[in-house]
Amino acid sequence: MMFGNASSGQRPLIVFTDQTDLDPVPGRRLLEAAGFDTMLLSLMTERDVPAEARRAVGLVVGYASIDQDIFDAFPDLAIIATTSAGFDMVDVEVAERRGIWVCNLVDAATQEVAAHALALILATERELRAATSVTANGGWTDDVSVVPRRLSELTLGLFGFGRIARQLATIASPLFGKIVAYDPYCDAYPAHVEGVSFGELLTQSNVLSLHSPLTDDTRGIINTAAFAKLQMGATLINVSRGELVDQDALIEALDSGRLRGAGLDVLDAEPPSADHPLRRHPKAIVTPHIGFLSDASLQHYVLDPSRTIIDWAQTGAPARFVVRGSR
């Protein structure tokens, strides 16, 4: 494949952005062995792009916002590979107009995120935060004031039914009395899951677990009106995107008792401020966005974006993509 800067005699450049929670070295080595140059940038705005980086043909993106200005800074850009299943940090409309491939990670941490969702469900439903507080403060059985619910008498609701939600439904099915799911893009559900409308999902769920990508349609969709439709004393689980939930409405629902509890691996702003009210809320269990994390998944996160770019360079098209490019 010929690149926009091939006539200069330089090797094509791939820029890694904001790799704060992953080690980019293995992925960079893989690309360099395949004939690319690589560079690591803290990419926040167009002004953060040095002149020597503007010849890049590809980006490996963590959380940096890839907006119109960033696209303008890379005139030869042909492919973007994210280090996550989510790709909401990329302005896909601009990518489509410019013929730039956008590729996300698929199945890198399906097992891990599904297991983490189940762990949060069990931790909240078994009231582990309150129970461990009793123990830490010197108490024992007679000091427990919150009685857990029996899972087999509850309905688990899934907002979104992609790979992670399907995995969760499989491993949670023996525990729950019923599992329902809403996904406007899903035409068929397995026998142990009942497809329902969004309204029915809210009214039927004792435990609501979020597994939807962040889009203009889903941003803030779990709001005051949605909480009002949930069964009194429901539990909310979010291992997807924090922005799916109106955080003020969530805190109000917890404080009022509308929600029994919340298990959260994501918040609306990350990292959250030290005084974020959900960090220490007595009815919330919050983990620091580690649902994806395992020794095996880390290998996928650091290597698969680079493999995707090599695949594109060698064949002209990556095997999987969310925006089809023409470069």
UniProtKB/TrEMBL annotation:
Residues 30-319 form the D-isomer specific 2-hydroxyacid dehydrogenase catalytic domain. Its EC number is 1.1.1.95. Coiled coil: none annotated. It comes from the Bacteria. The keyword NAD applies. Keywords: NAD, Oxidoreductase. It is an enzyme of class 1 (oxidoreductase). Pfam families: 2-Hacid_dh, 2-Hacid_dh_C. Residues 118-291 form the D-isomer specific 2-hydroxyacid dehydrogenase NAD-binding domain. The keyword Oxidoreductase applies. One of its GO terms (molecular function) is NAD binding. Belongs to the D-isomer specific 2-hydroxyacid dehydrogenase family. This is D-3-phosphoglycerate dehydrogenase. It comes from Lysinibacter cavernae. The lineage of its organism: Bacteria, Bacillati, Actinomycetota, Actinomycetes, Micrococcales.
